[in-house]
């Protein structure tokens, strides 16, 4: 069987729901459908989830938000109208939403979270009604009834281990299950959401619990591209890549698939296929545990900006036991995560995301490193971009690094740092942000445009 | 003024001492001479220091070692004979050595250390006698009288801060000071040696204390070479390099100058010149605080084997605050130092020297990482060599990395890892030990044999 997840733009209008129904009903293996809240119908539109957040906030302030409630309900009503559904489901959605809005407001973030989660929950009910209207044996399943239990952190719920066992029982049910994405319940019965794009997580958890043969993730692009299309136009599509490669790509700017969502599928070795609701015949991209590397060693070029580097030098640092550990302890004391630590003999560089540090934190860190570790020199460089060449097959390919560095050199990009560990799933280059696009272009040309030797 | 240090091979015979006298007396700035114990006279010979260690050990076992005492004293006597010196100084050396051998044996390592140190001490007295015999105003100065105080760890003495102030008073003395290298005294009056090649350290401390204009280090090679001559024949000599470059080179297999010895000179910005006693007109190599990079970005290629790499992967490692710090803590608990930590998104590789770990430690470390950090995969790879391209001017040279990686790729060397931090004093490549020489050849050819663009 297959778990199929549809994103918000795939479910934004009646016309989109018709496509979704066609896709699901064209393959009897597609028995579990995970739905998002209605997304944008056009570039200026607002997602239902965002309307819900505003609505909850207004309720917290004024105890009512009649216009927002109507605009939310009308989003569902428009779809129902378009599809010729009865008003029953819309009445149900309106009453349920109003009941939620009148709920316990003692913990505002939990209150907002439950309202936010209703976007998916209500849409699952609407989708189930539409599928039945089309003659399918489809029904809404509540995450509560199915036993999808999560931790209590709003917006960052973690699945509880027993959920997998609970959800596996859905296998016995007949027909098509319509399951709302994005949230679960804590043990007190509160709705708690996963991190943003959390419907991907729900689908992945279900795929794992049900030992699905495939987890299909329908979105609005034909495939994962080998490079960011906003930097390089018409880039090559990736047909197949490994979990590790996907993770490395999504780390540095690829946002097609929520990387945290890969974990449950990864743990159960379930392939994840990314497809386009608007073009379901396109091959899509499949994320697999292993792949052969017939398509060349590199699958993609990713980049992300907003990094900084802290450079620390101290003569004979190399002989000091515990130096590196103490540097990392100082970062940890301020809850900072670092990305990489390239090092010379007597110096180390720490690459971290700038947005974790304001000036106060930065100054405190710098002072502590200087004073407590008696460093000779501590400097920080801002506006660093990381550019990654990703491909699991690089490991056994002698020339990959040479090709990459030559491409950067030919493009007059100065490499600020390089990081390549034993895994060789990726080579990371640090460059100045001003040279990021130049670097991505150069690497894309080197690995995808030129004939590979 | 200049502090001049002579190594053991420069002081092994009377003929060598004649060269030393010529060198010192040819320049009135050479007023402080640091001497080593007599070294090897030929490839089969034994250094006096090694004879002394054996002699001390035999004394500890049997309370006497008449033959070893004679062979030690005869080394000095042969030199005195060759130079036509009176027997007075030899008698003095013999009685002093015998007195030391009858000394306190309660702490065997300290006992051996004091015997070991006498090699330099006695030779300084002999050299001073010879210089006076030649008509020079030269005299032996005892480290004790001069106030060279050190910590009490035999074979790894660290200079006490007050020594610099004490030694600075030598500046007022007239004539040529002959100062024994390799040891100082702790506050109880015990002779304690520096680490091996410690005469370099003594010279560097004196150069700092006396604010010398130059610290000349006479040895038996014309210069520091840009690559190990046992791998590449007739390599290019290095005329000038920075402390940092010297340190990076000496880290990975360059043993011309003891890198710990650079510190005192480095702290006082005193240039260090490496020259050849047997060819004093050769230009030598000068270690300086800064250099211009007119000779190309790279000064040398160094390599060293005997490393291993521990590869750790864990899905979403990157999001775990404290992961890296906890890995380093595990290493620190076993007093292990690491060299580099290249990393991917969800993996890190730790490069460390194999000789720190036996199988038991290795297994313990691996198990702790696996269990305590819940890693997905922990593997160790042995027989790794590190090959370094060193040059402070690489920082602003776009093509250096490309040139290096292309050279390795053309030579079919697989790069296991790369490490290049912000300092860019060096780029480190990890390769399999079996490919070490191949890699060094390829890099040397790329940076020194081909015309540089």
Give a structural overview.
Chains A, B: One of its GO terms (molecular function) is aspartate kinase activity. Chains A, B: Keywords: Amino-acid biosynthesis, ATP-binding, Diaminopimelate biosynthesis, Kinase, Lysine biosynthesis, Nucleotide-binding, Transferase. Two copies of one chain form a homodimer. With 453 residues, chain A is an alpha/beta fold. Chain A folds into two domains: 2-220, Acetylglutamate kinase-like (Carbamate kinase), CATH 3.40.1160.10; 300-449, VC0802-like (2-Layer Sandwich), CATH 3.30.2130. Chain A has helices spanning 14-25, 48-62, 66-83, 88-101, 108-133, 143-146, 162-168, 199-209, 243-251, 262-267, 323-333, 359-372, 400-410, 436-449, and strands at residues 2-6, 30-35, 138-140, 176-180, 183-185, 191-193, 214-219, 224-225, 237-238, 240-242, 272-276, 285-288, 300-313, 338-340, 347-353, 377-390, 417-420, 426-432. In chain A, a hairpin with an 8-residue loop joins β11 and β12 (285-288). The longest helix of chain A has 26 residues, at 108-133. The first copy, chain A, is globular and about 75 Å long. The model of chain A has no long low-confidence stretch (mean pLDDT 91). Chains A and B meet through α9, β13, α11, β14 and β15 of A and α9, β13, α11, β14 and β15 of B.
Would you kindly provide a brief summary of this structure?
Chain A contains 14 helices and 18 strands.
């Amino acid at each position: 069987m297959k778990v199929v997840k549809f994103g918000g733009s795939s479910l934004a209008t009646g016309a989109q729901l018709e496509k979704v129904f066609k896709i699901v009903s064209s393959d009897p293996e597609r028995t579990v459908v995970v739905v998002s809240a209605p997304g944008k119908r056009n570039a200026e539109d607002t997602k239902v989830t965002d309307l819900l957040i505003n609505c909850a906030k207004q309720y917290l302030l004024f105890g009512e938000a009649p216009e927002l409630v109507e605009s939310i309900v009308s989003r569902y009503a428009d779809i129902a109208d378009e599809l010729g559904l009865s008003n029953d489901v819309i009445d149900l959605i309106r009453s349920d939403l109003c009941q939620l809005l009148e709920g316990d407001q003692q913990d505002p973030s939990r209150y907002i979270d439950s309202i936010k989660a209703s976007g998916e929950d209500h849409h699952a009910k609407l989708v189930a009604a539409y599928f039945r209207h089309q003659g399918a044996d489809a029904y809404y399943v509540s995450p509560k009834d199915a036993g999808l239990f999560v931790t209590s952190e709003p917006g960052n719920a973690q699945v509880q281990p027993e959920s997998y066992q609970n959800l596996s029982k859905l296998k016995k049910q007949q027909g098509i299950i319509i399951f709302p994405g994005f949230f679960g319940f804590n043990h007190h019965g509160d709705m708690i959401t996963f991190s943003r794009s959390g419907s991907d997580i729900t689908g992945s958890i279900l795929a794992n619990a049900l030992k699905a043969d495939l987890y299909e993730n329908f979105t609005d692009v034909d495939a994962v591209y080998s490079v960011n299309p906003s930097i390089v136009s018409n880039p090559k599509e990736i047909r197949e890549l490994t979990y590790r490669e996907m993770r490395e790509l999504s780390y540095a700017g690829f946002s097609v698939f929520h990387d945290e969502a890969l974990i449950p599928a990864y743990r159960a070795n379930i392939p994840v296929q990314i497809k386009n609701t608007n073009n379901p015949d396109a091959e899509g991209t499949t994320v697999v545990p292993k792949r052969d590397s017939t398509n060349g060693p590199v699958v993609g070029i990713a980049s992300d900006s907003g990094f900084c580097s802290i450079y620390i030098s101290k003569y004979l640092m190399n002989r000091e036991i515990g130096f590196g550990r103490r540097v990392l302890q100082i970062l940890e004391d301020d809850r900072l995560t670092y990305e990489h630590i390239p090092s010379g003999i007597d110096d180390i560089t720490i690459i971290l995301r700038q947005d974790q540090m304001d000036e106060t934190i930065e100054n405190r860190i710098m002072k502590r490193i200087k004073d407590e570790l008696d460093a000779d020199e501590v400097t920080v460089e801002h506006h660093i971009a990381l550019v990654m060449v990703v491909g699991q097959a690089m490991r056994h390919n002698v020339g990959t690094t040479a090709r990459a560095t030559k491409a950067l050199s030919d493009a007059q990009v100065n490499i600020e740092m390089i990081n390549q560990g034993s895994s060789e799933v990726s080579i990371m280059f640090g460059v100045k942000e001003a040279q990021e696009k130049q670097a991505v272009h150069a690497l894309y040309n080197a690995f995808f445009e030129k004939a590979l030797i």
